[in-house]
Design a protein that fits this description.
Elements: H1 17-39, E1 49-50, E2 63-68, E3 73-76, E4 79-82, H2 87-99, E5 110-115, H3 121-133, E6 138-141, E7 144-145
Parallel strand pairs: 1-7, 2-5, 5-6
Antiparallel strand pairs: 2-3, 3-4
């Protein structure tokens, strides 16, 4: 029986191209994910200040973030809406919540209102009333916490 001479064998090198490609795809995915979470927050909204504000204990199963500017325009997912024309958007979110993994009913959707500090209280109340017309009952307000300057 003849054995192959071990000195003639080549050193095999691994191809790292798929590993590098996967790394870049993961980086792109996380950058995109960060971008979507920033869309919900309108930077031109200056939140009112509060010393008594506490951060949320846990993230709700399904949330809708509504940004309200001083002129009464509601900014949702980067688009501006008048309060009176918000019903189709809210209905779409209710449908999305119902089809989500947790099947969240309308009354359990967390409506997070980020109103500008100069927004009249009556405008905020009209927004709440519009959400209540669509059977949304769980409201949370965002403010700037003065304790964490």
């Amino acid at each position: 029986m003849k054995f192959k001479n071990k000195k003639d064998t080549e050193i095999l090198e691994g191809d790292l191209t798929p590993m590098i490609d996967m790394t870049f795809q993961l980086i792109a995915f996380f950058m995109l994910l960060i971008n979507f979470s920033e869309v919900d927050r309108a930077e031109e909204i200056t939140l009112p200040k509060s010393v008594l504000a506490t951060p949320p204990v846990e993230r709700p199963k399904y949330q809708v973030i509504l940004n309200l500017d001083p002129d009464g325009e509601v900014v949702f997912a980067g688009n501006g809406y008048d309060i009176s024309t918000l019903s189709p958007v809210l209905n779409q979110e209710i449908n999305n919540a119902g089809r989500s993994r947790d099947r969240v009913p309308a009354k359990d959707i967390a409506v997070i209102i980020r109103a500008h500090e100069d927004t009249p209280t009556g405008t905020v109340q009209r927004l709440i009333a519009k959400c209540q017309e669509e059977e949304m009952e769980n409201f949370k307000f965002r403010v700037k916490d003065e304790a964490y300057k």
